[in-house]
Queue: 2 jobs
Job 1
Amino acid sequence: MSPDQPRVLSGIQPTSDSFHLGNYLGALKQWVAMQDRYDAFYCIVDLHAITVDPPPPDQLRERSRSSVAQLLAAGLDPQRCSVFAQSHVPGHTQLSWVLECITGYGEAGRMTQFKDKSQRSGTDAITVGLFTYPVLMAADILIYQADAVPVGEDQRQHVELTRNLAQRFNSRYGPTFTVPEPFIPAQSAKIYDLQEPTAKMSKSLPDAGTLSLLDDPAVLARKIKRAVTDTETEVRYDPQRKPGISNLLVIMAAVTDRAVADVEADFSGAGYGAFKGAVADAVVAFAEPFGKRVADLLADPAEIDRVLAAGAARARAVADATVADVYAKVGFLPPATA
Ligand code: TYM
């Protein structure tokens, strides 16, 4: 956590009671690994969490604290990185407005996540907030002058938009923003749903296909044993013809820090039952102590609030400086001191 190191910024939505294994393998595992090599800023994007089906206020508060506990349980150390809530740093929305004014309407409308989510909800339910969501995400990243953004594959297009907006602003107003690189894992960038192994694992699909990190171990094992596979018997990585087995191979490899080919070799001739049993054991070996750490951390909500306060103080120092620079470059009058 030194300003001399390259910067990293990433965020996660507190939109469910538990993160899922896709969140962990696609993003959080990299967040943890990057906290020593980077000056790292990680946030709970609570502003983003009200763009679709906002939860009741108490539930949002509960999920936000639980999200922080899960980040710490996954291995983030508040001594080595800044963990904060997006809503505690007003600069994100202050910068977002300026970025909205250099984003094309058509450009925002081409974001595939917006198209998917708006198709699913129907036109009457879509908010302007959902439409401008990726611009707020760009502000989250650019305000910290982030060099790298660890995310899963589904966020690639949003990071690409962020790069375009940074370049556009820089060429219009002079060098201001670092143009960030997405940091997307080679192996586990997209974990698939267990029941529908061609769709990404997601909180919005039915529960049977989603491995929630806070699921009971017996539930996790059952979901893995019931995962949809194919009519062959060979444990082989072939995402086109064997999406279910390939997904389980990727999960096994990522959870045990091995290469897919090595896991495949271990289970050649083993049969699906034995393979699924081993995947279940590996996932439970990770999730069980994780769940215990989360419960311990949640027993002391004041400590979670202290972590957030310290993280927000560090984040605000960086964010306020960027907003001041951007507002001056755009031509807003400096606020006079009385
Ligand atoms: P969110 O909250 O949906 O997901 C958090 C992270 O998990 C990754 N992820 C996956 N990775 C692999 N396989 C999956 N099935 C899977 N599902 C989710 C996501 O790619 C993400 O990295 N827009 C972001 C939140 C955000 C953000 C930011 C991220 C807001 N501002 C700034 C980075 C930087 C989102 O909705 O993530």
Job 2
Amino acid sequence: MKFKVPATSANLGLGFDCMGLALELYDYFEIEKAERWELLGFYGSISIDENLFVTAYRKASEYKGYKEDPLKVILEDDIPISRGLGSSAALIVGGIYAFNIKHDNVLSRGEMLQIATEIEGHPDNVAPAIYGGLCVVKDDHLLRIDVDERWNFGIWIIDEKVSTSEARKVVPFEYSRDDVINNVSCVVLSIDALKNFNTDNISLIMEDRIHEPFRKKLIPGFEKRKEYALSIGAKAFIISGSGSTCLSISDKSLDVQLKDVVYKEVKVNKEGVINV
Ligand code: HSE
């Protein structure tokens, strides 16, 4: 059995820890029955017990009260690791989905989201990885929105990594009333812009005051690249997740000519995790 899990861009500027978008870039998992866990193609030398795919598979087994039955898993990963594109969420969703297809889909997508969020700590990557599209989550309330297909999402990958835990430390716990009003209004207007191809309002997605002002210092060359992206036609340029990758949003294809950036342009993924 083979399935794919999409990359995801969390926060989308304004929706810190609650909003995320699925993209047409994937990790592919092939699974088969095995006597003991066998993981091929996984990055690094992490033990089976620490592997996020296995952790998630086990958590799903425990949730249903099933005895763990190990797998051989072959991973082909196109999602860059630790770059703010949901590589950890893809492993978590992969593990839970593998459990589910192996056990006649006993889990609903809502249950998959609940288990994945418990592991990840926030739902903004795992929700779009499961459902596709643009997702906003508050506890067990989920809004899934179809994004207009005319939007192009540019992924700007640089060599430097940013550790999510370090990037979370620089985000404050308290904000002024003005900052909260700014984000609440802009997030609603930018969701409308993504859904209805409103090219004027999409620039509001850059008005974030919750995380970008504090995190951009951790990403070398952020301001320079943002200025460049806007000069070649991007309508918006934001940090993807906690970085270091950035995401441009444009209504046309961008001709990016920067030596220190690997640039990929993709559309929104609509289905979320799915068999292939
Ligand atoms: N919402 C998370 C953050 C996404 O920005 O820290 C990264 O996992």
